[in-house]
């Protein structure tokens, strides 16, 4: 990252982005990684002073509309201190995560039983599809290998009736669900000199909460929660919603863990910044409890 000093306290910084080298106006102490992150936050704007000023102005107007700043002096103080904090790196403001509706069910009801079964079935299906795709790819690769490793006449090597290894590989691929067309394609690729059956194995759906259940977990709920990682057990629905609201998070981002031996309930939320990052102000995650002090757990 190149630098060119200016008299205004900002500098002209050059940062290598994924598609280009960009010239940006930003505080001179910012690292390349921080500057790249802020450019992404600003939707590609490279003048950080202007991007922050525009953002703060809109936030200040919103605060005034809500009655949070009472007069011109308070408005000016809010705007100036927020701008200074952002440019100094003391504060970082991210976009609010978009939530999605998560079904809520009460343990012990037929609705909960059906919902838990649905989540478990979906998880098993996705896991099976992922494993099957990998095995399918390996069997198709075996067809190509049977042709490529064959020593002899090229026509005979590509004919299952004359190449026993190819015949066995083709039969194994059929067992895995391969059509004759795909088997023929694999043989043709190998004959043309290709060495790999390229296949993109579908990744399981991004981990996340799919169901919130409230009450004391029974054996079936506990087993499904452990197996899928997609079910949250909350003391009650209202508690989960209150914690999500306190931290301005979608309710599905709050996970509960019952610590019976400690007679406690642990609520976990995602880290907004990677641990150890220059912008991380809470390395051990030990400063997030304060908003919960006045929260009553029924």
Describe the structure.
This protein is of the alpha/beta class and 298 residues long. The protein folds into three domains: 2-88, no CATH class; 104-124 and 207-292, no CATH class; 134-191. Helices cover 44% and strands 13% of the residues. It is built from nine helices and eight strands. It has helices at 32-41, 48-65, 72-88, 110-148, 154-157, 164-175, 180-191, 219-228, 237-246; strands at 2-5, 10-16, 21-27, 104-106, 211-214, 231-234, 255-259, 264-268. The strands form three sheets. A three-stranded antiparallel sheet has the order 1-2-3. It has a three-stranded parallel sheet with strand order 4-5-6. Strands 7-8 form a two-stranded antiparallel sheet. Strand 5, helix 8 and strand 6 form a beta-alpha-beta unit. Helix 2 runs antiparallel to helix 3, helix 4 (110-148) runs parallel beside helix 7 and helix 4 runs parallel beside helix 8. The chain is flat, with a radius of gyration of 29 Å.
What is the topological layout?
Layout: E1 2-5, E2 10-16, E3 21-27, H1 32-41, H2 48-65, H3 72-88, E4 104-106, H4 110-148, H5 154-157, H6 164-175, H7 180-191, E5 211-214, H8 219-228, E6 231-234, H9 237-246, E7 255-259, E8 264-268
Parallel strand pairs: 4-5, 5-6
Antiparallel strand pairs: 1-2, 2-3, 7-8
Helix pairs in contact: 2-3, 4-6, 4-7, 4-8
């Amino acid at each position: 990252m190149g630098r060119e000093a200016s008299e205004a306290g900002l500098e002209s910084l050059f940062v290598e982005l994924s598609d280009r080298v960009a010239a940006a106006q930003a505080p001179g102490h910012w690292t390349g990684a921080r500057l790249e992150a802020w450019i992404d936050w600003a939707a590609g704007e490279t003048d950080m002073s202007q991007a922050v000023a525009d953002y703060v102005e809109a936030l200040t107007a919103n605060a005034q509309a809500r009655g949070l700043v009472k007069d011109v002096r308070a408005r000016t103080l809010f705007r100036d201190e927020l701008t200074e904090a952002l440019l100094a790196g003391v504060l970082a403001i991210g976009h609010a995560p978009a939530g999605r509706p998560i079904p809520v069910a009460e343990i012990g009801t037929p609705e909960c039983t059906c919902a838990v079964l649905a989540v478990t079935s979906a998880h098993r299906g996705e896991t099976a599809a992922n494993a099957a795709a990998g095995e399918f790819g390996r069997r198709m690769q075996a067809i190509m290998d049977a042709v490529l490793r064959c020593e002899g006449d090229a026509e005979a090597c590509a004919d299952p009736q004359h190449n026993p290894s190819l015949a066995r590989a083709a039969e194994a691929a059929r067992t895995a669900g391969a059509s004759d067309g795909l088997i023929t394609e694999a043989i043709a690729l190998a004959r043309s000199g290709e060495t790999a059956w390229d296949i993109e194995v579908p990744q399981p759906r991004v981990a996340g909460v799919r169901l919130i259940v409230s009450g004391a977990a029974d054996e079936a709920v506990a087993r499904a929660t452990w197996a899928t990682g997609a079910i949250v057990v909350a003391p009650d629905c209202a508690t989960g919603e209150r914690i999500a609201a306190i931290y301005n998070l979608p309710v599905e981002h709050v996970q509960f863990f019952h610590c019976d031996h400690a007679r406690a309930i642990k609520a976990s939320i995602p880290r907004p910044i990677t641990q150890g990052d220059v912008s991380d102000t809470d390395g051990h995650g030990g400063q997030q409890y304060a908003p919960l002090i006045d929260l009553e757990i029924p």
